[in-house]
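Deliverable D5.2: sample structural annotation.
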Amino acid sequence: MGQIKVDYNVGGIEGLCVIEPTVHGDSRGYFTETYNAADMKDAGLDILFVQDNQSGSTKGVLRGLHFQKQYPQTKLVRVINGEVYDVAVDLRTGSPTYGKYYGVLLSDENKKQFLIPRGFAHGFLVLSDVAEFCYKCDDFYHPNDEGGIAWNDPEIGIEWPKLKGEYNNSACADGYTVDGAPLKLSDKDQKQPPLAEISK
């Protein structure tokens, strides 16, 4: 018991947590519990996760910013290979931090996890040559329920590390690079609207 350290309400945004598991290492390597329901409950994080997801991406891939419209999900995210900059944006109606974001570096080295409650948009940028990204969800995936906002919306003002390029009034990836590698987004993510548009 007590194998995790939790940083609550990171960035002054209620509900966002960065979790650091205890890592036991020696000359052979390491062991860590990546999830323990009892430890989470003891930490005040009593969440029933029902689905695990995993993705692989190369440097410069940006996935996001995504949210669920009718079936919001709490997510517990981590990286098992490589490094990403992971971001959550508060979209909760009436929240004093609506539209604010918090970002954290997640890697196979630091083994940090990011707990993102329901009501947030989420995305990440791959900073390493490759990255494998895993996350737990407390609701199942529902097709056609995903919404999105522009990853580079100046109203949100996310400072993506290692990213270079000029904002051209759209979410298009043209002209952006990450450590010299071209920024890569899905066609859908290059057409996402700004926060002000979805706020209407």
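Annotation notes: The first helix runs from residue 37 to 42. The helical segments are 37-42, 195-199.
The annotation will be released with the project's public dataset once the embargo ends.
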